Amino acid sequence: MENYLNIYCIPVTVALAIVLIWMLKGVIYRTLYSRFSAWLLNKLTGALDTTFMSHKKRLFKIVLDYKNRQNRDLKILELGVGAAPNLKYVPDNSEITLLDPNPYFTKHAEENVIEAKKRLKSVEWVQGVAENIPSQSNTFDIVFCTLVLCTVVDVKKCLSEVHRVLKPGGMFLFIEHVAAEKNTWKRFLQTFMDPVHYVLFDKCSVHRETESFIRASSLKDIEIERFQSELFSWIDPSIAGTATK
User: Fold this and answer.
1) Is the four-CA dihedral 194, 144, 231, 215 of positive or negative sign?
2) pLDDT, tens digit, for every residue of 222-231?
3) What's the helix, strand, coil split of the chain in %, to 5?
4) Residue 131 · residue 113 · CB < 8 Å
5) pLDDT, tens digit, for every residue of 149-203?
6) pTM (global) more than 0.90
7) Domains of the chain in sequence order
8) DSSP structure class, residue 237
9) Which residues contact 122 (CB under 8 A, 6 or more apart)?
10) Beta-bridge partner residues of 220
11) Do the beta carbons of residue 210 and residue 150 sit within 8 Å?
């Protein structure tokens, strides 16, 4: 009997281990991948912020002008906050909600959050997705995102949620990379690189027609500037713009 148990003990144990791993594969994948994604994107934060800095400053000058016209402090929502490099652009005394589905970004964003709290009324971190924003309708004066619409599962639903949570007359600001023109070498390169980006950069699509989605949304007064970021050739062109509710 003892020999019989010894013969079958190891394969049975291995089989049970495989079954357990298979049952928990979703949890393991989400945990390990989310940690890796937060680490990798944090490493790129400085370069990305520098690349798009002039466009961020221009957009947040529009936010400041909006604040002055309203003559009050603003309630702001950032989608896909990542390591929170954009907090330094937010006008003083604002109340800002930071929305991101990846909880492992919080440690990378900690320094930026601590610094921002010195001059902002409040900084609230919320875990969630842009397709289901956990806020009431007509809540925010400003919603903004940078390099986020390339990763959301449902762009239409995301923009619908942006429209819902904005106050009437509120503004949506965005900086995104978009698909190159069809039948060009750059579009071919984007198609080739898209699976790589999907895996490495948290489901990022480099040939998404983001501008078309924005123009087809319920938002109005849409103004978009197209430019070349020259960060990676396959994620150009990029757009920066505003829209209102």
Assistant:
1) positive
2) 999 999 887 7
3) 50, 20, 30
4) no
5) 999 999 999 999 999 999 999 999 999 999 888 888 888 888 888 888 787 787 8
6) no
7) 28-244 (3.40.50.150)
8) -
9) 95, 96
10) 244
11) yes
